[in-house]
Design brief:
Low-confidence stretches: none
Number of domains: 3
Helix content: 55-70%
Structural class: alpha/beta
Mean pLDDT: 91
């Protein structure tokens, strides 16, 4: 793991700066204590990072769970009752892992996964624009279309544009955001190719340091001074006792409450699904093409949620924003995720005041780069050129994520993907060609596909019913390895009708040739599940 430390250490710093505002923002969006988001980030980095089989995945509090958490805290009668649901949710995830439920992650089409990455990239860019100009009212990490502040993604964007036109934006936040963006672009396009120093010291770290310096030297400038609301906001304890007082513990006496079990199962299900989707996505982004063991990932996430819930943290999933930042920064092993967790822990204890000097607009610039790399314009052209079977699920997933939320968008893309599969299955069940008349009859050859299921009933039934009278049908099943019983029944019924329409049938199989078989059911019964 430490063989690649020269890659993982710089990457962990970038992930730390991306994770810090997201941990705090997701906690705020969830209606939970701010410190709970940091706990989840620390546990996601150190505990889950250590147990996970993913080399480049990063875990922490997830934006997709914010609405569930916000509702649950209110309905369960307090945060400590909710923490019990998090612990139980983690136990249920362990059960999922032991039952090998991780295989579900392999059944999401590539077009949907690419749509998920692109949709998240677009959302990151759109959501960070207000922060870039110091117009940040909605909590960082609220990635849903309908925002907690009553706006939606596009009305918030329009308000930002109007503020820019009228000049009612924060001049200091905007200036340092553009400076940070310039540093990031200069670093990635030019300086990173100039020597080892520029590879080890990452652009985001330089941008953050410049942002802190800018905050300090402009404090007394009426035009450029940054308001506290435009800075990172880490809770600052007065002493050790107040620091430890920020931890909360689950109320185990409420374990008989059925509502807690419902919330626990919901957390386990949604967190597991988001994790499996993220695992598939990060494996696709990984330039080294590592494959994450999904069942082990569920076990790691379950353990992480038990630990997080026991000490007052939010639910944890593997998250695409931090994972993609890790990949883009050159992370090679799980060390980068673990180290970022230690950075969160140490900085919260030792330098919370320094963290609270970081402008959110600088971190918005960092996230802009992450979002752009996820939603490159060239990808849209590439997916379009792949044809409608790939492009339609892709675009539906992108639009679904942008205009609803992550899981709804994925569900829409998956539903369209299934419809595409059904259409292609309908079309590809058989191959048909017509030969010249022989002995006064049309000779038609029908070759069945390798696997023919009940999805193909409509296409085959339509083809058989359309055969004209006085036809000689050559039915070739030599390549067919699986023939559904529904199809066999259709063929058996057709054999009866064929006699009335003067249609002769020649059945060609690996067992030989049969002329006008009396019963297809009896013929195929001799070879179950095979033609």
């Amino acid at each position: 793991m430490f063989k690649t430390i020269k890659n993982d250490l710089p990457a962990s710093i970038v992930v730390f700066f991306v994770a810090l505002p997201l941990c705090l923002g997701i906690a705020l969006a969830s209606g939970a204590p701010l410190f709970s988001g940091l706990i989840a980030g620390i546990v996601g980095g150190i505990v889950v990072g250590g147990l996970s089989g993913s080399k480049i995945g990063v875990s922490g509090p997830a934006a997709g769970l914010a609405a569930i958490v916000l509702t649950a805290i209110g309905t369960l009668g307090g945060y400590q009752n909710f923490l019990l649901a998090v612990v139980l949710g983690g136990i249920i995830q362990l059960i999922f892992g032991f039952l090998k439920a991780g295989i579900i992650g392999y059944y999401f089409p590539s077009s949907v996964i690419k749509g998920m990455l692109t949709g998240i990239g677009i959302i990151i860019i759109l959501k960070q624009i207000p922060y870039f100009f110091g117009l940040d009212k909605n909590p960082e990490g609220d990635f849903a279309f309908l925002q907690l502040d009553g706006e939606n993604t596009f009305t918030e964007l329009l308000k930002s544009i109007n503020a820019l036109i009228s000049g009612n934006f924060d001049k200091g936040a905007t200036l340092i955001a553009f400076v940070a963006l310039g540093i990031l672009l200069l670093w990635s396009k030019v300086l990173s190719k100039k020597g080892k120093f520029f590879e080890v010291v990452q652009g985001p770290l330089v941008a953050v340091v410049v942002g802190i310096i800018f905050f300090v030297i402009t404090k007394s400038n009426d035009t450029l001074a940054l308001e506290t609301s435009h800075l990172v906001s880490v809770p600052i304890p007065e002493d050790a006792s107040s620091f430890f007082g920020q931890f909360s513990f689950p109320n185990f006496s409420a374990i008989t409450n059925p509502e807690i079990w419902i919330v626990a199962f919901t957390i386990a299900l949604v967190a597991s699904l988001e994790t499996l989707l993220c695992v598939e996505a990060t494996d696709k982004l990984d330039p080294h093409k590592n494959v994450t063991p999904t069942n082990r990932e569920l076990l790691a996430q379950g353990t992480g949620n038990i630990v997080s819930g026991m000490i007052g943290g939010l639910p944890i999933t593997q998250v695409i924003v931090r994972s993609s930042a890790n990949i883009q920064s050159g992370g090679r092993s799980k060390a980068s995720a673990i180290i970022h967790g230690f950075f969160l822990l140490i900085s919260v204890i030792l330098i919370p005041r320094l963290l609270n000097m970081i402008p959110l607009s600088v971190l918005a610039a960092v996230l802009f780069i992450v979002g752009f790399k996820l939603a490159k314009p060239s990808l849209f052209k590439k997916m379009y050129n792949l044809g409608w079977k790939q492009s339609i699920p892709f675009f539906v997933t992108v639009l679904g994520i942008v205009f609803t939320d992550l899981l709804v968008g994925i569900g829409m893309g998956l539903a369209v993907g299934i419809v595409v599969i059904l259409i292609k299955s309908y079309q590809n069940s058989h191959f048909l060609h017509i030969e010249d008349k022989s002995n006064g009859k049309h000779k038609i050859k029908m070759t069945l596909a390798e696997e023919v299921t009940f999805f193909n009933k409509g296409a085959i039934l339509k083809e058989l019913d359309s055969l004209p009278r006085d036809t000689y049908l050559e039915l070739d099943v030599r390549k067919t390895r699986y023939l559904d019983n529904d199809i066999i029944e259709i063929l058996d019924d057709f054999a009866f009708k064929a006699k009335e329409r003067n249609i002769d049938i020649q059945l060609i199989s690996e067992r030989g040739v049969v002329e006008n078989p009396d019963s297809f059911l009896e013929f195929f019964k001799l070879r179950p599940k095979s033609a």
